[in-house]
ubiquitinyl hydrolase 1
Amino acid sequence: MTIEYALLKESKQTCLEEQKNLGHENWNPLEHTDWLLLEIDSNMLFRPGQIEVTLATIKPAGGSNSVLQMNISQGKTSCIMPMAAAVLANGDNLVRVIIPKSLLVQTAQLLHSRLGGLLGREFRHVPFSRKTSTQPETIKAFFDVHKAMRSSRGLMLALPEHLLSFKLSGLQRMSDGLMPEASSMIRIQSWLERHSRDILDEVDYILAVRTQLIYPSGSQKSMDGHPHRWETIEALLKQVNLHLWNLQKAYPRSIEVVPRDGGGFPLVYFLRKDVEEELIRRLVDDVYRGRGSLLPDVCNKSDRLAVKHFISLAKPSMQAQERIRQLFPDKPAIKKVIFQLRGLLVHRILLMCLKKRWSVQYGLHPTRDPIAVPFHAKGTPTEQSEWGHPDVFLLFTCLAFYYDGLNLTQLRQALEHVLKSDDPSQVYDVLSQTSKLPDFLRDWTAVNIDDAAQLHEIWTHVRRQVIVIDYFLNNFVFPQHAKQFQLKLQASGWDIPLSLVQCSESLHGQPTKSLTTGFSGTNDWKRMLPLTIKQQDLPGLAHTNAEVLTYLLQPRSRRYEIAADHRGKRLTEVELLGRFRNKGIRVFIDAGAQILEMDNLTLAKTWPEIHHEAPAVVYFNKSNKPFVLYPKGHQVPLLASPYANDLGGCLVYLDEAHTRGTDLKMPETAIGALTLRLGQTKDHTVQAAMRLRQLATTQAVVLFAPPEVHQSIIDVRKKKSFDHIDSFDVICWLLEQTCSEIEQLQPLYFLQGIDYCRRAQAALDNPYFLVDPDQREAYLTSLREFEQRTLEQMYGIASKVKHSVNPEPFFPNIASFTKELNRQRKSFQDTGNAVHGSALQEVEQEREVAFEVESVREMQKPIHYLPYSFPGLSRDIISFARTGHFTADSSAYEEAFTALRKTSLSRKYNVSSEGVSGKLYVSTEFTKTVKIPSDRSYDNFLRSVNWLLWSPSTEIAMIIIPEEADALLHTLYGTQQPLTHLLTYASPISRKMLHFNNLTFYSVPKLPQSWKAPGWLRVELGIIAGRLYFQYEEYDALCKYLCVKENSHGLEEENGEEDDDDGATYVLNTSEEDEGLTQSHSAKSFTKKPLVFMQEWLAIKRKGQDFSQSPMGYVCQGKPLGEDHPFFVTAEAPRKQKALMTTTTRLSEEEDNEDPDIEFYDADEYGPDVGNDDFDDADLTDGEDDVIDDSS
């Protein structure tokens, strides 16, 4: 029947293949009746090669986990997988077919058609993620499905992330102390490992090094160094943007910069390493010379030179390291910026992120939180993943927003925030000054946020403006989402193959049938497979790799096209489709993800407008299902269309996500356009090309390379721009790209292997961890890894660490793995794509993290705690309200700074009641919000200060909660001679709220008209409440309270335990109203590092929002304030600046004149014609000697 059908379709090639296949040559139908039924049901004869691979899959020669290579388009998925599953699903094994997510729908349809007919086999797919309930009934249902499939000889269709998720979820429950749930899940996992028989399709994809699942847990805190951490990245990206255009002019063959419509951050493609090194050198010089506000201008020349060495050299001198350690002892935020710059520049995190492709490898998810997430392929964001490395997360989020731009809702949020700011006109002026807004929209008073048409007009002009996007990120994205969990559990591709190491029961006398076998079209990554599985190719298929490449070397597939116009500029999507039409191409295989500005449906609608003769377009929708789009807009599933078995005449578009494993019935003479991109591997390209199943005989491909890929190819082949290029050159380039990719991933491969061995050994050392608390704690200690690390821990210079692993303490199976890992590590040849050697261990670790962060991370949802209920007003507080005096030894209230010690931050800085007035109290109820475990941080559940009970006679103040204030109102109302007053207060977080600072806004009973709040009260209350603004008259009192003095470098903390006899003076004389503060406050502060404490305390109170451009922000940063500062200028005074009080750091005039021959462009001098000037790159020389002058 197959031959007859092929004759009717005039398919000569199919006829020849079927005539050669006599059938049943190397197997007996009587012994494999299921296979015979499969042949009848599917109307086909299995080929001898398929039988050999199937038998090797069922029973590997070595009896261990194995991977087989078989040529693409030879029936791995359609024939071998159903045949193997039919035999292995015998009622004793639980057969699990594990596939990539993109192939789920197609594989499910195929297995249903193959096994659901005459064989009558069932199959199930049960997703599992961190969102899945772990209640007993859910877990029991999960287990029942698997047991039913095993007993009924059915099979499970699984995704690797679902398998890893179930495993980690059980361990996570144990880590959280939920032992009933944990015990059940871990026992089920053990049962699955003992009874499963796994078949992997596309092994090289499933077991890739990047296959990793991370479960963060524990308390969630803001990133170390916030908010400067994201501000530094934004400032650095601004400098990158300024340099890109001149770099393109100076290095035209090393970098391509593509401007975006509507302005904003350009797309950039790095072609050679010389321009990468030059970009890093220019950024280091920016930091050294004070450009871009990356570092304050208080550094002297010697300090700046030490910083320059530290952020540019992998191993700076000990002299430079010592100088860095001594820098800014009272300003740790600045030192953190230096460490972050080292990580971004020396560890190449900045370059790694710039080289990743937006909307292909990272981008924004349309329905998730507004943060960058990893992408499976072009336009396919992951559903549960996120970037794990904090700086990578920040960089990708900035870049994703720069490329995507703000949407209307986000712009409205930003403008509403401007409206609530202290000076909306000034803020709006700064946000709009670089835009092309029409004049009538440049005046804030003319802007109406509720006017939809006006809002849309503003949006069209500013949506991609970097300064507007940064404003939105700094106020709405990073404060809420730039946080880290304390701990993490992780699993990788090493955990997927079943092994004796996993099945601990098998090592205690119980035999196991667990085995994993799989197959793939290439074996390029066999050296990167986990050691728990081996590549065992059949001798008869040893030619597979070379055979596939010969398909691309046949004359009909040798064609190569540059996707550029006559000027060498890359083609737009529409121009590229037009090129296809001119060359008669109807199949578009976008392996290089060159379609970025259109989604699949948009392209499917656009292509017929160019190629008018096509009857329909076939594409994959957002649900990964093939659909047919007719010219009039009607859509039907491909299987329900007349083109299901013959796509002749149709236009076919395969986006990057579907260039692997997709099987469509292409015409025998089809010609496909295959795109390329930087970093594309041979495996990925061959997989995409073999979507044309007859490529070996009648079909052909034309390779399309964008300009950056073409330049890379001629560099690798050492050819000139106009030399002839064909598929042979492309194959040589692909092999080089593949080797480079493998080299980049080897450090992470080693790290994952060691991590797997450590976890497996811990399980064997503690076999009874479910019932023995001591073993459980030891096991969890091995499983948990700290995720929260300081910038110094991440990027500081550490002593040499031996990263090889001693195999002696391990069990024999694991010891063999560690021995092999150490052997591979020693033989690793580094050509510059990865870092190797003990001198650069810290850099190497960060490179591993840089790739590790691309792994799947499923977020832990915030825990909801029960609130405390109000027990009623305390008698002691009522007594204080009536008499103005405290009751001795009362538990109803305590000193405010004593209560402050309940926060982890106060314990960190050893906050005490020394050096304070001792007259500010808080009620006990004020310290209670939610019921949290004793090991959890209380910092995220602090009340705001709104009500104050004040006693004029004793000058004692008590902060109370609204419920207590409400209960006291009837006591205080109508009092003829009041002894206490109930005062309202709101922390001044903007200048408009300063009227609350005097505590006279509203009181019950009414205060005397002449009453003024004592200076100590305003200062201490402001500290507890987290105020940002104060009047200039309070500045001196605040500095004295914090034991801060002014010197030539700014504000500096005093040693509170020593007398102040060094001649330093305070800024102003104490005002009369603050005399009480001077008398009651000693020279000793409530903490040894008050400015550092205040910086972090205000960050907590502001929930991570930026407060650096406020009076308290300046004080915390050690910046002195004057009476004429814009913070204190009244509304009637003329504005002296338009900027958001952002200081541009520059070198002093004296230092600028040190090197009169050096000319370096400044960010402020850039105009709209940047990149088109007469800048001579030869002038960009470093005139400084790389010697640290220690005499400064």
Q: What stands out?
A: The longest strand covers residues 212-222.
